[in-house]
């Protein structure tokens, strides 16, 4: 796609995981791939929707089960379509997620080649409080805009909720939030110390010193920003 055209492809994704720590893994992935005008924020076409469970090599934490309702019986024997996910993400000019620091870390553990694509955070790059939203949490954003989804804390449904929210108009500019998001510059990922290297068929974990301290900090930051397993 020509660089001077305002038309580009975006991919908005969400994940559900076994927990919040470095050894935890994705148990559900969902994305919406779309063509849009980055100058106007108009979504022109939905290109692809994808959702699938993934069997992890570690148990699903009790807190995660309580929040997302996903148990081992639901994910047993299920695998992500690696080729499809990789192809879609590589075709997109930007990857959107609500709390990129969370989703990007877990995606990068499975697909390290995708970690330094152009990721954009819908949670931190929009001043939701200035829009009148109580907080940056997805549930508060959806409530404010009266956006309903089939299920809470499920990957594709949460992705659909975020997708609807970023198409709402900014109070200051009158343009969809997607316009401001599309202008955000690419940031490289600082690799998470102690993050597990995970593949679909070979679950090997590298335990590095200091991951407990890093994990504790991640948990605190995560819980302060968004309610999600």
What do these coordinates show?
By secondary structure, the chain is α/β, with parallel strands linked by helices. It has one domain (7-224): Ribonuclease H-like superfamily/Ribonuclease H (Nucleotidyltransferase, domain 5). The protein has eight helices and five strands, in the order βββαααβαβαααα. It has helices at residues 62-68, 72-75, 82-91, 100-110, 138-144, 155-165, 177-182, 211-225, and strands at 7-17, 26-37, 43-53, 94-97, 119-121. It has a five-stranded mixed sheet. β1 (7-17) and β2 form a beta hairpin. The chain is globular and about 45 Å long. Residues 191-229 have low confidence and may be disordered.
Q: Report helical residue fraction.
A: 25-40%
Uncertain ranges: 191-229
Helix-strand string: EEEHHHEHEHHHH
The average pLDDT is: 86
Number of helices: 8
Looking at this structure, what is the CATH superfamily? Answer: Ribonuclease H-like superfamily/Ribonuclease H
Distance between the termini: 36 Å
Radius of gyration over C-alpha positions, nearest whole angstrom: 17 Å
Bin the strand percentage: 15-25%
Biggest beta sheet summary: 5 strands, mixed
Query: For this entry, what is the oligomeric state of its chains?
Result: single chain
User: For this structure, what is the CATH class?
Assistant: Alpha Beta
What does the overall shape look like? Answer: globular
CATH topology: Nucleotidyltransferase, domain 5
Number of domains: 1
How would you classify the helix and strand content by structural class? alpha/beta
Name the CATH architecture: 2-Layer Sandwich
């Amino acid at each position: 796609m020509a660089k001077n055209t305002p038309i580009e492809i975006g991919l908005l994704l969400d994940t559900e995981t076994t927990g919040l720590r470095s050894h935890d893994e994705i148990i559900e992935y969902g994305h919406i791939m779309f063509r849009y005008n980055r100058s106007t924020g108009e979504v022109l076409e939905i290109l692809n929707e994808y959702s699938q469970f993934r069997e992890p090599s570690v148990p699903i934490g009790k807190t995660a089960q309580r929040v997302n309702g996903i148990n081992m019986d639901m994910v047993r024997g299920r695998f992500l379509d690696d080729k499809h996910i990789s192809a879609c993400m590589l075709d997109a000019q930007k990857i959107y997620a609500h709390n990129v620091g969370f989703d990007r870390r877990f995606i990068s553990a499975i697909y390290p080649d995708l970690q330094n694509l152009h990721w954009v955070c819908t949670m931190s790059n929009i001043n939701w409080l200035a829009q009148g939203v109580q907080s940056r949490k997805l549930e508060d954003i959806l409530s404010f805009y009266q956006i309903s989804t089939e299920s809470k804390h499920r990957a594709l449904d949460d992705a659909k909720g975020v997708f609807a929210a970023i198409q709402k108009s900014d109070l200051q500019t009158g343009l969809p939030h997607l316009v401001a998001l599309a202008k955000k510059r690419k940031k490289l990922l600082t690799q998470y110390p102690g993050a597990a290297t995970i593949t679909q068929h070979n679950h090997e974990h590298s335990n590095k010193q200091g991951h407990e301290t890093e994990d504790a900090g991640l948990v605190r930051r995560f819980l302060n920003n968004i309610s999600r397993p």
